[in-house]
Specification:
Two copies of one chain form a homodimer. Chain A has 261 residues and is of the alpha/beta class. Chain A contains nine helices and 14 strands. Chain A has a domain at 2-182: Carbamate kinase (3-Layer(aba) Sandwich), CATH 3.40.1160.10. Helix content of chain A is 38%, strand content 23%. An eight-stranded mixed beta sheet of chain A has the order 5-8-2-1-11-13-14-12, with helices on both faces. In chain A, strands 3-4 form a two-stranded antiparallel sheet. The first copy, chain A, has a two-stranded antiparallel ribbon with strand order 6-7. In chain A, helix 3 packs across helix 4 and helix 6 (160-171) packs parallel to helix 8 (221-232). The longest helix of chain A is centred in the first third of the chain and has 25 residues, at 66-90. At the A-B interface, helix 4 and strand 5 of A face helix 4 and strand 5 of B.
């Protein structure tokens, strides 16, 4: 099967114009098929402030009321998405920016929670992998904004990490998928205060060992659980590291590689 | 050749939620291939006001400074585009929203003017008709936002009427194209104060007659010149009328049809 890279970048890259340009140059140069999933950044929060719309976070998740959804749709699917596309085009990478409503690519439902009303937050039901594959085979690079829809005229704010994971899983039926999470650290660290203590690779057995010996930072465990879930659903490798190191992440010279091996 | 409808809607429909929904229901029901080109509306102006960015118009054209371009990218390519797509998806119309940077679909250059600096306003050089055709043949309905790019990382604000016309012309090589301009009046009027004086059809000879006898409203002449330019470049028919009458516009029972016949 053909290789496909699904790469997720977050606010730390998106908010830094120079870092973003440098990343996109490396991204554009990847000769294989690729999908870039981007999160948001500080722009949405700043815009909400300017417009006097109070933003609430619960457990690190934004409560998406109607006005906030408007802002996220504008900033994520509009400003950030189209600026990344224009930059990639200037780098001779034929990019197409979409959100989950476009081509019905990602169907989700409004999150149901008995404790907190997350508002217009979407949990993914289905990724239209065949259609995304057809676009890739047309030579297009897909740039996905973290907005989905429910098929009944409701746009939904959806976590970009989850989108990247669900796309990677769904595409695994027809591609050899590598899922790359850009991270603020150089990878999974044995010592959270030592950037040089990156664990090069983790397989399921080693993961159990790390958990039992409590050697890795607790906050990292859900991320690794997700990575193993992706591996269990057919994704070849999940790589966690700094977007700035993209070249080395792809060749295994940097970051942490999670796989069955 | 297969039929293709290129339909342009403007602020009068976009700003009216009920009219927009009613229009999109009729649009979704068209069984042929279709491209919807949308303009802006009052939302961009309102957002600019809220953010304290002064807006300047010269001869009805917005001067697009950097901050205004940000807003237009957010509102046109983000909010309006994605909300139309989500609505069409809910109507079982598999829509995909793009701007001119996506898939390099519309290349433009920054407008050169010796009198006025229009800022980041784009004049179209090229429409990537083959690629748009490939998307249509995948069963997708294209929803185009009035933002283009110059291929060198610059997004550009571009007039939606012009985008619709250039797309219609470029697609005429491989489709029988009907270009429909939604208009605040029921069509081209013989008497500008009488909505019932719609001229059903205009061919080049009749147009000359109308101009000579000064029977039509002067402001209408540039629009008709543009319509005839489209006809001269292979577009089968240009139809001008109310978006609310879409069904009747398509069958020639409403609006003004401009053609060689």
């Amino acid at each position: 099967m053909e290789d496909l890279y699904v790469i997720k970048i977050g606010g730390n890259i998106i908010d830094d114009e120079i870092a973003l340009f440098s990343f996109l140059k490396k991204f554009a140069a990847i000769p294989a098929r690729k999908i870039l999933v981007h999160g948001g950044g500080k722009m949405a929060t700043r815009l909400a402030e300017k417009m006097g719309i109070p933003q609430q976070l619960v457990d690190g998740r934004r409560l998406t009321d109607e006005e906030t959804l408007k802002i996220l749709t504008m900033v994520y699917a509009g400003y950030i998405n189209k600026n990344i596309v224009a930059r990639l085009q200037s780098l001779q990478c034929n990019a197409m920016g979409i959100c989950g409503a476009d081509g019905n690519s990602i169907l989700a439902h409004k999150r149901v929670s008995t404790n907190v009303d997350y508002g217009f937050a979407g949990d993914i039901d289905y990724v239209h992998a065949e259609w995304l594959g057809a676009l890739l085979h047309q030579g297009l690079t897909i740039v996905m904004a973290p907005i989905t829809h429910d098929g009944a005229n409701q746009l939904l704010n959806t976590n970009a990490d989850t989108i990247a994971q669900e796309i990677a899983k769904a595409m695994s039926n027809s591609f050899d998928v590598r899922l790359i999470y850009s991270f603020e650290k150089a990878g999974v660290l044995l010592d959270v205060d030592d950037e040089k203590s990156v664990i090069a690779s983790i397989n399921p057995l080693y993961f159990e060992e790390l958990k039992e010996s409590k050697k890795i930072f607790a906050g990292m465990i859900p991320k690794l659980d997700n990575a193993f879930a992706a591996i269990d659903h057919g994704v070849k490798k999940v790589i966690i590291g700094k977007a700035e190191d993209l070249g080395n992440l792809l060749t295994g010279k940097a970051g942490t590689t999670i796989s069955h091996e």
